[in-house]
Amino acid sequence: MNQHSKIYVAGHRGMVGSAIVRHLLSNGHPAERIVTRTHTKLDLTNQVDVNQFFAIENPDQVYLAAAKVGGIHANNTYPAEFIYQNLTMQANVIDAAFRNGVQKLLFLGSSCIYPKLADQPMREDALLTGPLEPTNEPYAIAKIAGIKLCESYNRQYGQSHGVDYRSVMPTNLYGPGDNYHPENSHVIPALIRRFHEAKVSQAPSVTIWGTGTPKREFLYVDDMAAASVHVMNLPQATYSQYTQPMLSHINVGCGEDVTILEMAQTVARTVGYTGPIHTDPTKPDGAPRKLMDSTRLNALGWQAQVGLEVGLKVAYEDFLARYAA
User: Fold this and answer.
1) What are the beta bridge partners of residue 172?
2) What is the residue extent of each domain of the chain?
3) What is the DSSP string of 160-205?
4) Rounded distance, CA 12 to CA 178, Å?
5) Per-residue model confidence as pLDDT tens digits over 153-208
6) Which of 87, 149, 205, 258 lies 20 to 30 Å (CA to CA) from residue 138?
7) CB–CB of 27/80 below 8 Å?
8) How much is the pLDDT for 1?
9) CA–CA separation, 221 vs 136, rounded Å?
């Protein structure tokens, strides 16, 4: 990347896409060289429109952060939308990028690509070694397909066309720009909203889904953005030392995990709710543990910077600003 690179950030209004734009701008990339489109201006599931957009804009780099996302409830309720929309968006953007001469693309996936009972911490080579977590299998399959799309274009067109499409697999993300929907959000924004509303209403207690025992790793979204830009701009020779043609993705995590109950307790302290917290074992837990092995990325010169309590404080401030509005 240089100051003249024209960069398209797909999904710039989402939590990760907006963080990538912030990171690019804070590192001096000119705003006029960053291309974005809202969903109303460009529907990424429309192949014709996506091809036309790439032909007109002709970007040098693409960050593919656009996706249909949600927590356990949303994945269970809308499996058809999760697999169809994500498959279609990925295929349209990656193929249009290739057909319009884009050599550098970064695809953002998810830690749910790994088997439900994968060895912990989860290494990149655990991919496709066992059954997926059933509650988010359609979304996971779509993300695996995105990785394989990038790998396939690299294999077929890497030498002849200079194609260099990379993939990063983040752990659970949180931070400014998150989705606080009462039913379709991920665990941290759902907990922030629930504990805030419990504090305001002076609820006698709060009940969280599941047993509270599953362990999860959480990464502040601006750390994810920094990792994405870092991986995108690594020299090919450096990047290829830690990947192979059939294992092109890299994990992005902080290296630490907590139980869901511990996370709920931390969020409650951040929000200022002091009542008791109960668990509901009748609700699904998801995978028992999801901790990423980020050894490869660490060896490539990146480390997470924002601790959980600091990140949660900023996330709650973001919630208050947007919730009040």
Assistant:
1) 218
2) 7-174+218-255+290-306
3) HH--EEEEEEE-EEESTT----TTTS-HHHHHHHHHHHHHHHT-S-
4) 12
5) 999 999 999 999 999 999 999 999 998 887 777 889 999 999 999 999 999 999 99
6) 258
7) no
8) 60
9) 21
| Amino acid, res. 122 | M
Mean pLDDT, each 10-residue run in order, the chain (325 residues) = 86 96 96 96 98 98 94 84 97 98 97 93 95 93 97 94 95 93 83 96 95 96 98 90 73 96 97 97 87 95 96 96 78
The answer to whether 189 and 319 have CB atoms below 8 angstroms apart is yes
Burial 218-243 (b: 16+ CB within 10 A, else e): bbbbbbbbbbbbbbbebeeeebeeeb
**pLDDT the model gives residue 80:** 96
**How many other β-carbons are positioned within 10 Å of the β-carbon of residue 148?**
16
Please state, in angstroms and rounded to a whole number, the distance separating the CA atoms of residues 61 and 1.
Answer: 8
Domain made up of 7-174+218-255+290-306: CATH architecture: 3-Layer(aba) Sandwich (3.40)
323 is known as an active-site residue = no
Q: What single-letter amino acid sits at 166?
A: R
Residue 41 CB neighbour total at 10 angstroms? 9
Say if residue 325 is exposed, middle or buried (CB neighbours under 10 Å; 0-12, 13-18, 19+): exposed
Pairing label, strands 61-64, 104-108: parallel
pLDDT of residue 215: 94
Closest by CA to 304, choosing from 242, 214, 230, 234, is 230
The one catalytic residue in 114, 139, 220, 239 is 139
